[in-house]
Amino acid sequence: MKLPAIALCMFAAIGLACLNAAGAPEPTKEEKERFRRAAEYSKSARGLSMVVMRDGELLFEDYAPIWNRDKPHLLGTGTMSFVGVLAACAAHDGLLTFDEKASDTLVEWRNGGAKEQLTIRQLLGMCSGIEGVNPVNALPTYRHAVMTAESSALAGERFSFGPVPVQCFGELLRRKLAPQNLAVGDYIERRLLGPLGLRVAFWRRDVDNDPILYSGAFLTAGEWAKLGELLRTGGRSEGHEVVRADLLAAVTQAQPAQPAYGLGWWLLGVDDAGSAAFVEGRSPERVARAIEGRKATDYFPPADTIAAMGKGKQRCYVIPSRRMVIVRTGDSDSREFSDHEFLGLVLGPEEPADTTQ
Fold this sequence. Notes:
The chain is an alpha+beta fold and 357 residues long. It has helices at 5-22, 29-44, 81-92, 120-124, 142-148, 163-177, 184-196, 221-232, 245-248, 272-280, 284-293, 339-347; strands at 47-54, 57-63, 73-74, 202-203, 217-219, 236-237, 240-241, 266-267, 306-310, 314-319, 324-330. The relative contact order is 0.15.
């Protein structure tokens, strides 16, 4: 017996309602108001897009009049959110270990100097002793970074943020992949982007045609959220393991020389010092000034909050305890934007621990 079209529509609507009920909870009225206020705050600080997800489901999205969900934005140093995850994938595939010496592959560093002893973990954690920025403040190619990297401290002693260590890792990974005749860009696509269904609109390349790992990716807010989801779920996507959880956990392990930094991701909730370092800068002097000048009413996010960040206040926040991923993009003059104020608006008061899981 054929059902009338109106009946089919009714059954479809009922099925959709059941599907929604079985998924992530809908945002409450209070949450919707918080999200709206956070979006307005972001736009007042030259924000362009905002996406909020819970349990992998879209809760809220908002865009400036000149922007839309399909328009990608340069992540700047937010691009490094891919690098630590990529290293975890390479470890999963048996290409490397985080604590092996980089000089095992970068043979130019086997000269008895400080670079000979540093590990891949220290290289990606910006505490390898290598100066993050080269003397001419230019972005080096992978090979040039390895040849010109300068050590100013012993590995693990000092945090120095910049493109040189990341581009050195690019050369290390290039050599690891050479026996497979696989380029770094191809490995990124095959091993990470493809399994996540993540589309990078454009990835700037250096003069050797290698993807710039430090700052080259253009993504939409929704696509960047997919990488955040991989962190939130401990390495799984659509029910499948993309990378082992124990290896991915290295991305969020604090560096002894900088408690607010992991491998390409900032650790916002580790402690007051870590949060202040994230907000105010990366040198010990600026951290000290930030702690001294912090108001008692400043908002500090949940302890497990991590974030990728780039120039213009590009942000991908991952908060496992809230089951949330939040992405915010802005133009190059978003200096007045405050992470603490924004997250305070999005998250509201601290929620009690969930004891039902």
